[in-house]
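My current task is to audit a protein record that another person submitted. My question to you is simply how this chain folds and whether the tokens agree. This is what I was given:
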Amino acid sequence: MATVLRAMNADITTLRVDAVVNAANSTLLGGGGVDGAIHAAAGPALLAECKRLGGCPPGEARITGGYQLNAKHIIHTVGPIWGGGVRGESATLASCYERSLRLAIDHGLRSVAFPSISTGAYGFPLDLAAPIAVRTVRELTASSGELDEVIFCCFSARDYDFYRQLLGAPRA
């Protein structure tokens, strides 16, 4: 069965999926934006587990329990800080999506929700980041029937509209 890809305008911390992806910083110890929201919603046990992981370099991913979230797991990935596109940011961003999905598959997970990685405080322009996200997810899921659903969870209506257009969904 083909993996369903869809955009959703929601708070990622409320989703009932096998895993939510956290756009983390390299310490994995919490921060602002979606990272802070996930840590706050999951509770203090998440921080304790993240401390044991010892961080995560940009473009890689780590998995933890979901704790007080509706999601069973959290996949933490560290996106690139935008520097004009001349420091390999696009490849690093694609790696975030690929490695996160591979972790989900390796752990037998069927549904994953991604935020828009690196487009907040890290400054990656949405019009460049979103096509990388969608293309990478499409390429990986096209050759694998192991995932049922991948959600691009957008906090803003602007991001949601952009992802919907990329996915070919009709305007709401």
